[in-house]
Specification:
With about 160 residues, the protein is of the alpha/beta class. Helices cover about 30% and strands about 30% of the residues. The chain has five helices and eight strands. The strands form two sheets. It has a six-stranded mixed β-sheet with strand order 4-1-5-8-6-7, with helices on both faces. The longest helix is centred in the first third of the chain and has 18 residues, at about 25-45. It is globular.
């Protein structure tokens, strides 16, 4: 039987990868805060949810043959990131595997974050390691780009 939802905070780990930086913030710290809050909200409503070990960077662990590979059995994965580009770039988006179709979880994230940020929609990728590993295991995976760490208004 498949487990529920696995929430993953992007970047961090050892050696420490801060991810993007901007407006005095580090992506790795923001992803851990957001992932923890998301986990608490899911638990509050009785959802079967787990939080990937926040001391690790799943991408690095997957490169070593751990990470995504050792966390099979989940029906859904939500990986949290913060985007970066020019200071003018803004908004939220959900990345899905190429050829995938948004489901209720994907739409829920985009709708919920759209209350706070400009909706940049769904983006489709085929070049992300964790995404491909989970897609190949028949697990529904999405990478949430909450907003732009490089945009002052998004960060406020």
């Amino acid at each position: 039987m498949k487990k529920g939802i696995l929430i993953v905070a992007g970047h961090g780990g050892s050696p420490y990868d801060p991810g993007a930086t901007g407006n005095g913030k580090k992506e790795a710290e923001l992803t851990r805060q957001f992932a923890s809050e998301l986990y608490n909200q899911y638990k509050k409503y009785g959802v079967d949810v787990a939080l990937y070990n926040k001391d690790f960077d799943m991408y690095k662990e997957t490169q070593k043959g751990h990470g995504a590979y050792s966390n099979q059995g989940y029906s859904n994965v939500v990986e949290v990131h913060f985007n970066a580009a020019s200071a003018d770039a803004h908004g939220t988006e959900v990345l899905l595997v190429s050829g995938g179709k948004p489901d209720s979880i994907d739409n829920g994230f985009l709708d919920g974050l759209n209350n706070h940020f400009t909706n940049r929609g769904f983006k489709y990728r085929s070049d992300l390691l964790n995404m491909n590993v989970y897609a190949n295991s028949a697990c529904s995976y999405r990478l949430i780009e909450v907003c732009f760490i490089s945009n002052k208004a998004d960060m406020e």
